[in-house]
Amino acid sequence: MDIILYEPEIPPNTGNVARLCAALGLKLNLIEPLGFKIDDKHLKRAGLDYWPHVDLAVWSDWKSFKNNWLGGKLLGTSARGGELYSSVNFSSDMGLVFGPETRGLPESVKKDLDGLLRVPIRQVVRSINLATCVGLVTGEAVRQTGLWPE
């Protein structure tokens, strides 16, 4: 299972997702442009000393990633639409795509996906934190597929 962050903007969020990927043994794909440099101190601090354990790929753009994707379905997230994430049947070859913090996934990326997932939230907030969203969706996907590390 791969985690794909499309044009992430906030270094600590990406660092936290990288730490989650290291903990679970999942590949992290970052789609440029990034809102930070890979050596950003905030990114490194959030990922702590786990960076050597992150299976990381950085792609120049969505097209480059999509043209090289060899896995199964690609499922994206949306704050306002899609199927409830906990009702989806995940498989270990899927890619989970998360959009940038300030604008979410653009329509051009959504049309390339096999489906959209939503995390239910109360209408008093626009969205939840990217790292939190990745944690919720990935936790359910890993639970369903049995990909928990030994």
Q: Strand order, biggest sheet? A: 3-2-1-6-4-7-5
Spans with pLDDT under 50 lasting ≥5 residues?
A: none
Rounded to the nearest angstrom, the radius of gyration is: 14 Å
Distance between the termini: 16 Å
- Give the helix/strand class: alpha/beta
Instruction: Report the biggest beta sheet as strand number plus sense, adding barrel if it closes.
Output: 7 strands, parallel
How much helical structure, as a percent, in the residues?
Answer: 25-40%
Mean pLDDT: 91
Number of strands: 7
Could you please describe the fold and organization of this structure?
The chain is α/β, with parallel strands linked by helices. It is built from 5 helices and 7 strands. A 7-stranded parallel sheet has the order 3-2-1-6-4-7-5. α1 packs parallel to α2 and α1 (11-24) packs parallel to α5 (130-145). The longest helix has 16 residues, at 130-145.
Describe the structure using short key phrases.
150 residues; alpha/beta; 7-stranded parallel beta sheet; 32% helix
Please render the helix and strand layout as text.
Blueprint: E1 2-6, H1 11-24, E2 27-31, H2 41-47, E3 55-59, H3 62-68, E4 74-77, E5 83-84, E6 95-98, H4 107-110, E7 115-118, H5 130-145
Parallel strand pairs: 1-2, 1-6, 2-3, 4-6, 4-7, 5-7
Helix pairs in contact: 1-2, 1-5
Quick recap of the structure?
This protein has 150 residues and is α/β, with parallel strands linked by helices. The chain has 5 helices and 7 strands; from the N terminus they run βαβαβαβββαβα. The longest helix is centred in the C-terminal third of the chain and has 16 residues, at 130-145.
